[in-house]
Amino acid sequence: MNEGDAEIIFLGTGSSAPAKYRNVTGIVVDQKDKGSVFVDTGEGTLGQLVRCVGVDAADDIVRRLKCVWISHIHADHHVGLPTILARRRALLGSNGSDEDPVTVVGPKDLRRFLNAYNAVEPLHARFVDCRATLEGEWTRGKQEEEEDGEEREGVVGTTNAPNSPSVDGSNNKPGSGSSSFDWGDSLSHVRDACAALGLRRMVSTPVVHCAHAFALTMESEATCAETGEGWKLVYSGDTRPCSNVTNAARGATVLVHEATFEDGMEEDAVKKRHSTVGEAVKVGTDAGAYRTVLTHFSQRYPKVPVFKGGQRVGVAFDLMRLDFKTGLPRVPSFLEAARSLFPEEEDAETPAKEPAP
């Protein structure tokens, strides 16, 4: 790979609600020559992107958007999605967005949220349930391709079929009225997005958090001519440490894992189904990931949580950009630099002096 071929942009690295130093979760995987993917889009994600790269570059990333993947239905992971879709529609124009709708992959309850918003402002996208992108569905699709000799089409899973009535009973066929959202759960939509992005697949994996919570695995086509191997990115979403994430992250180029609580708060982590810093680091170690990047910190840690670093571990902070070629190898060295971004204690405000009588 060359510098600039692919990078990860962290637009939000906090949990629950925006705070002074950390916005809620938002990640972009950008490949300038192929397209971009948003992975979770908390409130303010688009604004953070503009802050990070500027208006023109942000519009370019949104214009090249091919897929959005949402891990679960909690608001700090998806509320910023309509703004991004609406911006893309504005940039492409209604005709362009109709011809090239973006694929949104998410938990089944996200369908209702998008359906309600789409009734107010057309989003020009297609929705795919995360369950349609499970490992078993990709394996089944590959087997059917080999048997049939052609790409698999059709409906996957148990949710609405393509162009069927939506949750409010309306028909969402393109051009059928005010709504133009495609509610089909065909894996072929995701395959089309992967083909455009140079990815072999995007797999959703169930995790231990709320109902219908998933981790994501993105595997690229070959980027190394000698070995025929590509990069592999795994994003945990919100979860307790679990074998599903560990297995998915085996040999990953980079594992982005939530680390909501500091070590010593395991009881709280279990109660709220999150991970501690030490638990997240262990997942990356057990999986043999080349780099583990920690994110989704509780807002009680507005700066950098205290923990022992490692040769393969780094901490994400808002507006951090990791180039696959030049940034990932240096991830461990970022820790001290991130700690130096903020003073240990902020100076107390000096009270104004009373004017002399």
From TrEMBL:
Pfam families: Anti-Pycsar_Apyc1. Residues 169-182 have a biased composition (Low complexity). The keyword Chaperone does not apply. The keyword Zinc applies. Residues 158-168 have a biased composition (Polar residues). One of its GO terms (molecular function) is metal ion binding. It catalyses: Endonucleolytic cleavage of RNA, removing extra 3' nucleotides from tRNA precursor, generating 3' termini of tRNAs. A 3'-hydroxy group is left at the tRNA terminus and a 5'-phosphoryl group is left at the trailer molecule. Its EC number is 3.1.26.11. Keywords: Endonuclease, Hydrolase, Metal-binding, Nuclease, tRNA processing, Zinc. One of its GO terms (cellular component) is mitochondrion. It comes from the Eukaryota. One of its GO terms (biological process) is mitochondrial tRNA 3'-end processing. Residues 138-182 are annotated as: Disordered. Signal peptide: none annotated. Its cofactor is Zn(2+). Belongs to the RNase Z family. This is ribonuclease Z.
